[in-house]
């Protein structure tokens, strides 16, 4: 079964084809590298939200609690990613290039889906606190309110990074990307939040081109994915990949419960 044939690979947000797969080279320039790394992060987000969207109407009552925790992890992960961009990555790009409005379009796109995204997050907190009862149809409606502009943003940002090539060696995107990644990962709990990225990163995607993502020592990746992630294993049953990093079909795609 190829990666693109899984239910979650194309809807509601299609996976992004990475710049490196479109222009394969053993030594990609820093802009292709950075845009590809960002594509990988965005594809983790896409897989997570696709898995929520597709399974939400079919989750049986016995699985509501772990599914809510899984959704909270996805929400928190996306929120941390965008806060990391706005608090560090974007300002650093503007400082180094001297272009004060360089990333305004991207920040504007964040704003385009902010209200719908935050409404989803508020609902999740109400569920977590027992003030709401889980409703799969409501979940889909809340997602529909922001998933369109989110999809546009996740795709458009890749082009933005590639276009930074006009600044040449003035930028060190590998260094900036690593610094941002370290900051974001440092804000996420290793057992309740970070696994949403590791268990929605498909090691086989684009013929295994991204098997070494994220760019951290392999033993650290193994510990985070196959060690810490098992702490709340019931949460991650809804993810698109197993503890081995390989893709799998979603377990809850049947009749509404």
UniProtKB/TrEMBL annotation:
- Domain Hemerythrin-like, by residue range, is 38-162
Spell out the InterPro entries in the cross-references: Dimeric_xanthone_biosynth, Hemerythrin-like
Task: Check the record and name the Pfam families matching this protein.
Answer: Hemerythrin
Q: What is the protein name stated in its UniProt record?
A: Hemerythrin-like domain-containing protein
Naturally occurring in which organism (per UniProt): Sporormia fimetaria CBS 119925
């Amino acid at each position: 079964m190829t990666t693109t044939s899984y239910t979650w690979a194309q809807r509601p947000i299609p996976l992004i084809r990475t710049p490196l797969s479109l222009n394969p080279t053993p030594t990609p320039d820093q802009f292709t590298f950075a845009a590809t790394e960002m594509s990988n992060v965005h594809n983790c987000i896409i897989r997570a939200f696709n898995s929520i969207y597709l399974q939400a109407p079919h989750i049986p009552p016995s699985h509501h609690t772990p599914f809510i925790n899984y959704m909270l992890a996805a929400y928190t992960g996306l929120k941390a990613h965008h806060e990391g961009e706005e608090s560090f990555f974007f300002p650093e790009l503007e400082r180094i290039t001297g272009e004060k409005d360089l990333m305004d379009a991207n920040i504007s796109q964040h704003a385009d889906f902010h209200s719908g995204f935050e409404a989803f997050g508020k609902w999740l907190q109400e569920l977590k606190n027992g003030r709401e009862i889980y409703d799969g149809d409501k979940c889909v409606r809340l997602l529909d309110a922001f998933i369109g502009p989110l999809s546009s943003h996740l795709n458009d940002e890749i082009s933005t990074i590639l276009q930074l090539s006009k600044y040449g060696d003035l930028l060190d995107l590998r260094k900036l990307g690593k610094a941002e990644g370290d900051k974001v990962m440092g804000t996420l709990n290793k057992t309740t939040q970070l696994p949403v990225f590791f268990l929605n990163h498909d090691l086989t995607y684009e013929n295994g081109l991204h098997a070494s993502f994220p760019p951290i020592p392999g033993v650290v990746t193994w510990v985070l994915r196959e060690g810490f992630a098992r702490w709340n294993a019931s949460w991650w049953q809804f993810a698109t990949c197993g503890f081995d990093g390989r893709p799998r079909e979603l377990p809850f795609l049947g009749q509404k419960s």
